[in-house]
Specification:
This protein is of the alpha+beta class and about 180 residues long. The chain folds into two domains: about 30 residues; about 150 residues, Immunoglobulin-like (Sandwich). The protein is about 35% helix and about 35% strand. The protein has four helices and eight strands. The longest helix is centred in the first third of the chain and has 28 residues. The termini are far apart.
């Protein structure tokens, strides 16, 4: 009986060991190849804004933060493998436009006084009055198969460049290839 139990335990251990090795290898075999990409964010609107979210396919993405009016921008780049999950299908952007009252208050209030109790109440009231926008953009017509193929043809030296332009109450996205070395 002891000998039989020992053989069963040995078989279980061997099976578990093989499964422990095989399952990650199967995951790697069916993984989608990712692309390097760069994001350029610009505010072409009339007022400053603060971005809250820029999420690809529902997964948390980069947040450029404050963008000044009239072309203020930020840039971010990602190498192949930084983003898991293949080619993004959609993006959801969320941003807050700064009202004229909020901008005037923040310009005239010194940084060391912003965090006082009375100024925090004013800040909360003004911040809540700022216009808030959320827009979902389908990337299928923007990231065409031809564009993806151009990037994949020279994956080590080419990135997918996405330009994100905020125009007050809407966002526009364009894409192109970018040869970075």
């Amino acid at each position: 009986m002891t000998q039989g139990k020992l053989w069963i335990d040995r078989r279980t251990a061997i099976g578990a060991g093989l499964a422990w090795i095989t399952v990650p290898l199967l995951g790697c075999a069916h993984r989608q190849e990712s692309l390097g990409f760069s994001l350029d964010f610009y505010n072409k609107g009339t007022r400053p804004l603060t971005t809250r979210r820029f999420d690809f396919d529902g997964k948390t993405g980069p947040i450029p933060g404050y963008l000044g009016p009239g072309g203020g921008g930020a840039s971010m780049s990602f190498m192949p493998g930084d983003r898991k999950g293949g080619i993004p299908q959609s993006v959801e952007a969320e941003w807050i436009l700064h009202s004229e009252e909020y901008s005037a208050w923040s310009k005239r209030t010194p940084d060391n006084e912003v965090y006082t109790k009375e100024n925090q109440e004013i800040y909360q009231k003004l911040w809540a009055a700022n216009p808030h926008y959320i827009q979902r953009v389908d990337l299928a017509p923007i990231l065409t198969p031809e564009l993806i193929e151009q990037v994949r043809a020279d994956r080590k030296n080419t990135q997918l460049k996405m330009t994100v332009i905020y125009r007050d109450d809407k966002v526009e996205i364009t894409a192109s290839t970018y040869k970075w070395r």
